[in-house]
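Throughout this review, each integer encodes one residue's backbone shape. One record appears below.

===
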Amino acid sequence: ELSEALKTNSTLVTLDLRSNASGDDGAQALSEALKTNSTLTTLNLANNLIGDSGAQALSGALKANSTLTTLELQSNSIGDNGARALSEALKKNSTLTTLGLQSNSIGDNGTQALAEALKINSALTSLNMDHNSCDPEGQGYMLQQDMVI
């Protein structure tokens, strides 16, 4: 199984799993591997039917992982609860520089939580929130952090 191989992998730095319909279960399995993997820097999970529970699992991995710099989660089904979980991870993670969350279902509450996390996180330099469900008020939270939405 891929997640088991990733736990002991010592060479792979980029893993592109976009459009594989792995869902929340796949995100959970990968999250367990990311907690111990020390080489992967880029993970693309775009268009994988990942919802809030998958995002919550990935958040746990981001709290423990110290090598991942890019995480692409665009075109999934992540909502406010998933965004809040990711925001908690961003408060602790110091290596992730790029997070793609465009084309999800993140509303104002999730956007505000992410904006609050950015007050603490100084590593993230790119956060793509394009095509989500936040209104101008939610967009304002990001603009206050000088982030592109």
About this structure: Residues 115 and 145 are 6 Å apart (CA to CA). The chain has six helices and five strands. Residues 52-64 form the longest helix (13 residues). The chain has a mean pLDDT of 92.
